[in-house]
Amino acid sequence: MTVHRTTVVCKTIVCKTIAEAANLLKSGRLVAFPTETVYGLGADARNSRSVAGIFESKQRPTFDPLIVHVVDVASARELVTEFSPIAERLAAAFWPGPLTLVLPKIAEISDLVTAGLPGVGVRVPNHPAALELLRLAECPVAAPSANLFGRISPTTAQHVLDGLNGRIDAVLDGGPCGVGVESTVLSLMTEEPMILRPGGLSIEDIEAVIGPVQLATTDPNKDAAAQMAPGMLSRHYSPTTPLSIIEATSKAIPVAGQKCGLMTYGPVGVTIGFQKIEQLAEFSDLKTCAANFFAALRSLDSADLDVIIARKFPPIGLGIALNDRLKRAACR
Ligand code: TXA
Ligand code: MG
């Protein structure tokens, strides 16, 4: 079922304190808040009406499950029927941090949160404001990225307002997100741990702790509901300007007769003919690239260009997650 509503009107406030944001969450409201990855749109995960509000305000289809955010490992254990030894090791190594674990859910978690799947995605975010919010709200908080479905993820409070002003109750401003791409989603529901979404924690870092993991292939021809990570649609993170990808080492050449923008991970080389250039990092440092990625994509998208040319990232570490986002952003 797809929830679509075009006229959600409410006044979106900018919270003055974390306590104010926590009280709003407690009373069933929708509050966008900062995490280390991207801004999330939070609701009390135990309150089905509020969770339904997330889908409504984002225009998000209900086959796409939500990640539940908790303040610590003990709170995560309460949401699942089994927190395996592998989960314990990962949590000890990487929480708080950009890792979401999919684990067998307790019956009390509504199907709306998990899109009817047997597993629930949980994570402890590594952001002081998010942790304080979770502590004061005293509830698990379901939160997708705080953007309209399919659009570019938000890494500042202003990005949240650009997409959702008037559709959500409040936003808590915690400044720009440090990591800049969403969490890595790892399912422990399968025989071998499986990466459902590459993200802010590199696969190499995970493998250093638990050994080899599989990488799920999301088949665009498969019905979304039948996929293991249903939200991983081939088209996502989309700018309105067409995006064209070139290889990591290719020379960037503008398209004749078109207003072209360029996004590149490191030193640019020859730039004649580009209207606007976003160089994500001075020396191709992938952490800096990730932190700047979505903001750069937004800035190019609002520059009235005919096409954005984006250079692929080296396929290691965070480059894997960034290439995943690029591929989906280019899909039309
Ligand atoms: O960094 C992040 O993960 C951010 C911040 C706010 O925490 N959240 C985020 O949520 O990116 P969202 O809804 O935009 O993406 C979550 C994705 C889903 O689309 C789905 O692919 C996967 O995580 N996911 C969540 N729960 C799942 C579950 N129970 N089973 C399988 N996949 C799940
Ligand atoms: Mg998202």
Describe the overall structure:
The strands form 2 sheets. The chain has an 11-stranded mixed β-sheet, with helices on both faces. Strands 12-15-13-14 form a 4-stranded parallel β-sheet, covered by helices on one side. Helix 1 packs across helix 6 (128-137). It folds into 2 domains: 13-222, DHBP synthase (Alpha-Beta Complex), CATH 3.90.870.10; 243-330, Rossmann fold, CATH 3.40.50. The protein starts with 12 loop residues before the first strand and ends with a helix. It is an alpha/beta fold. The radius of gyration is 19 Å and the shape is globular. The protein contains 10 helices and 15 strands. The longest helix is centred in the last third of the chain and has 16 residues, at 286-301. The site of threonylcarbamoyladenylate has 29 residues, from strand 5, strand 6 and strand 10.
Basic shape = globular
Rg, alpha carbons? 19 Å
Q: CATH topology of the largest domain, which one?
A: DHBP synthase
Instruction: List the strand order in the largest sheet.
Output: 1-8-2-3-7-4-6-5-9-10-11
- How many H/I helices? 10
Secondary-structure element series? EHEEHEHHEHEHEHEEEHEEEEHEH
Let me know the CATH homologous superfamily of the largest domain.
DHBP synthase
Separation of the first and last Cα atoms: 23 Å
Oligomer: single chain
Bound molecules: threonylcarbamoyladenylate, magnesium ion
> CATH class of the largest domain, anyone?
Alpha Beta
Q: Outline of this structure?
A:
With 332 residues, this protein is of the alpha/beta class. Helix content is 28%, strand content 17%. The site of magnesium ion has 3 residues, from loops.
